[in-house]
Amino acid sequence: MSDSPDAHAPDPAIDWHAPPARAVRLHATTNALWFAVIPLLAFAIPLFAADGEQRLRMLAWYVGVTVAAAFAGAYSGARLRHQRWRLDAAGLWLRQGRLWWRETHVPNSRVQHVDLKHGPLERRFGLATLVVHTAAVHLSGITVRGLDEADAEQLRGTLAKQLDDAGDAL
After folding, report:
1. 136 and 155 co-located in one domain
2. Alpha-carbon span 16 to 90, nearest angstrom
3. Taking 70 as the threshold, does the pLDDT of residue 127 lie above it?
4. Secondary-structure percent of the chain, ordered helix, strand, coil, rounded to 5
5. Which secondary-structure segment (H or E) carries 109?
């Protein structure tokens, strides 16, 4: 491998993969629900303690805050649609963000082990989360959320095979 600045650049011939639309919808919906629960818990007691006209004003304000929080949660969850991943001979690449990209590269030589996570909703929608643990000091691992289950298993299998092959070479 050369010492040029582009020696670690991703291969342009390999496409970046986006999460499936169902993963973005699931992530946005669950975030919206969690964000909506916060006002519910924060304002439930004051709402029930109020009386008459004050209760109606508080209820209107409460509904507005809850809807705004749900929209904020949905927006924050929908950011998953700006995540891209790719696997090439150099390792795993993860790009996140729209205006400001955060690009993470995990070289094959740094991969320690690979985990797949399947929460109950992820299992229901055929999704998985890939967790790649590394030997780096700064970056102990990366998490790739919202993968199609087949893609996640393929990535895990490919990275695991590279680990096995590297272990045999030592």
Report:
1. yes
2. 14
3. yes
4. 55, 25, 20
5. none
- Residue 132 · residue 94 · CB < 8 Å: no
Distance of alpha carbon 142 from alpha carbon 155, whole angstroms? 13
Is the full-model pTM beyond 0.85?
no
Which residues constitute the domain of residue 59? 23-79
Residues 34-81: tens digit of each pLDDT = 999 988 888 888 877 888 888 888 888 888 999 999 999 999 999 999
Please tell me whether residues 70 and 114 are part of one structural domain. no
Alpha helix (H) residue ranges in the chain: 21-49, 52-78, 120-124, 149-169
**Is the distance from CB of 110 to CB of 94 less than 8 angstroms?**
no
pLDDT at 8: 58
